[in-house]
Amino acid sequence: MKIAVIGYSGNIDENPVKPLTTLCEALGLEIVKRGHTLVTGGRDGVMEAVSKGAAKLGGTIVGILPANDTGNDFLTIRMNTGMDYSMRSILMMYNVDVVISIGGKAGTGLEIFAAYGHFKPIFLLRGTGGWTDRIANTLLDGKYLDERRQVEIKSVWSVEEALEEIELLEASK
Hints:
This protein is α/β, with parallel strands linked by helices. The chain has helices at about 20-35, 45-55, 85-95, 105-115, 130-135, 160-170; strands spanning about 1-5, 35-40, 60-65, 75-80, 100, 120-125, 155.
């Protein structure tokens, strides 16, 4: 599967990313270990940390980049879109099977909504702050963004739980 990981951008050695780097690296490692492809926005922050973990096992790491951005050092495939951050985020949702959200600011919120609009299953890695935790508290019936109930959004509490839920989803197809 092509698994998108979305979340905070910014320097990985500063808050709010720094406390999440170990978790992000473990997630990237586990995605590759289980034979999946990692897709991110290709930049810094959560995107860089999860890419760093995936690179440890030589995984395929796709960065869907905004205009004039070369991406982080761990990408194996750089897709330069020529688009701004928001439009590239929407394009990313056309090219993934599922989404895992970690923390995040407004751009992550946009990506969650774009994933929902494109019927992509979304896994909120809870306890990571930002829009990931905020959106979890607003869901209808604890799992939908709106009354259309077009795709379920699930809260997960660990890297292992996220990947197990994704593999259950994959097995049910």
